[in-house]
Amino acid sequence: MEEFLEFNDVSKHYGRIHAAEHVSLSIKRGEFFSLLGPSGCGKTTLLRVLAGFEYPDTGRVSIDGADITDLPPNKRKVNTIFQNYALFPHLTVRENIAFGLRIARRPETEIRSEVNRMLALTQMDEHADKKPHQISGGQKQRVAIARALINKPDVLLLDEPLAALDLKLRQRMLLELDQIHDRVGITFLYVTHDQGEAMSLSDRIAVMNNGRIEQLGTPAEIYEAPNSSFVAAFIGDTNFFDGTVQAAPATDYCRLQIDGFPEVLCFNDKTKSVGDLVHLSVRPEKFRLSTSKPTLDPLHNLVPGRVEEVVYLGSQTKYLVRVQEYRLSIAQQHSRFILDERPIRWEDDVWVWWHADDGYMLDRYSEQDEALMELPTE
């Protein structure tokens, strides 16, 4: 896919608040791209700059090679879907979808054909003559999507579009959004603070913090190889350990000293040196757990612990396990019928192990990052 939508050195300040700080970003044609981050990180500011609702203090924005920075919102081939849908309550579903084409004074035959196409795309045919108060939240969202797509925008902007829906409806709408994107093939720019939404929908994600992009990559790249402690903590659950590099031989692995642990082996992708302070991240599902001591190959780390909490969730069980000063969050997937074996219980003495490749070394976090993270230590 070719580069299509570009932010070039975009900054936007509101007094002392730096909502966007020298952001440069390229999005490909037809890509489902998400801006992800906590409230106030700058993601909605970038969306509003693209839509023309805000003018950047510095930088330019272009679509398909054309600079649109100075164009008014109505001259940009960009449509936005907001949290509250913004449907006209006095118009039917059909009339809401047709609104943009009627304003553009398109021929009636074209309007009718395009509205029917959008109704079919969003599976709203049976509700075409209902008013917004007669349909559900998920159906309103579909109408908002159809009304935005009927104008054939170059880019569809979605600003926290599922925030008003309950959990089950959000999960269903995620699938429907993905299917709609696959069918229409235009560029989607999705803004959310929900990492689950971004991970399940996106081709790529830009994780934002304090007006800057902390990391840009595919969902798998960001989850498996975060480039900062902030990203590791914000994207899913993780366990953090403070360590010091004790040995860094000319192999792919180094040895870390973590208080109360035996030496910990870790893949040395950062090429750390002896004495460097590091932050080790291990995801809950990377750990293995047993009441009997396992026999492992040299690339595994093994520590004893005690179970402090057990939470059964059907498809998996989550454990909180005390290992020295750390309280590890561990997730074990139920791949087999668990009633055939004795379950691990509260206050069991257990062995915890993980492969050296499954720990990810990061630079020590800043005080600002620390305030945003829930560390697993007490």
The strand order across the widest sheet is: 6-7-8-3-9-10
| Architecture per CATH nomenclature, i.e. the level-2 architecture of the largest domain | 3-Layer(aba) Sandwich
**Would you identify the regions where 5 or more consecutive residues have pLDDT less than 50?**
372-378
Which range does the strand content fall in? 25-35%
Describe the oligomeric state of these chains in a short phrase: single chain
Global morphology: globular
- Number of alpha- plus pi-helical segments: 9
Overall structural class, as computed from helix and strand content, comes to alpha+beta
- What is the H/E string? EEEHEEEHHHEHEHEEHHEEEEEEEEEEH
Binned, the helix content reads 10-25%
Radius of gyration: 25 Å
Indicate the CATH class of the largest domain. Alpha Beta
